Amino acid sequence: MMNEYVLVLVIGALSIQSLALIYVLIRMIGVTDRALARAQAPEAVGSTPPPPVSTPGKATVAPLKPSPAPVCTQPVEVVDKGLIAFIKKEEGFQPKAYWDYKQYSIGYGTKANSATEVITESEAEARLTVEVDKADTLVKNFATGLPKGIHQALIDLTYNAGPGWEHASLGAAVVSRAWDTVKADILQYNHAGGVVNAGLTARREAEVSWFDKPL
DSSP readout, 75-109? Predict the structure, then answer.
């Protein structure tokens, strides 16, 4: 009877040890499986940075973009008021855009921004002085040291008929200081739409008169 009792105790002890051993093995297998799962993942944990945390009450500020440079329409310093007065008289003030052979013009003969544009007289004068300044710069860059009257004539021609004369025979005559040829060439710029225009003829004659008597 005693031997049977001891045998039962031994078997019970072995069973407890076996269960403990089995439990340890199960835990080890679970840890190994989790390790293998992490190793086989596309990216290791922590390799992808977390999304930025937004601060409550603060909006995300987009990068600033540079603003386009404004178009200058402010009047520049007028160095030749006599020429400005002549152009204003010749062109006359037109507050509404009108068709002018090659373009829509407005104000004192400057190019309009659209066919329906309307401007004030002060804006027209501002645009006038800007364009005269551009013409003055063109003439100065093309030929320096010109007599005042010739310089004025070329500015008005540029303002009225546009650039391009500097690449024609007129430009060559200006460079060579052949003033009689310059006069004759200026008088040729009296056509509008391919037809001789009386108003342009009178304006060209006025310009060549400045050679001897500047404004």
Answer: PPPPS-HHHHHHHHHHH--EEEEEE-SSSEEEETT
Condensed to tens digits (0 to 9), the pLDDT of residues 124-148 reads: 999 999 999 999 999 999 999 999 9
Provide the CA 202 distance to its chain's centre, in angstroms. 40
**Residue corresponding to tokens 């003969």:** 109
Backbone angles phi, psi at 51, to 5 degrees: -65, 150
What is d(CA 181, CA 47) in angstroms, rounded to the nearest whole number? 82
**pLDDT digit string (tens) for 18-75?**
545 445 444 544 434 443 334 343 333 344 444 444 444 444 444 444 434 344 455 5
Domains of the chain (ranges; CATH) run 81-209 (1.10.530.40)
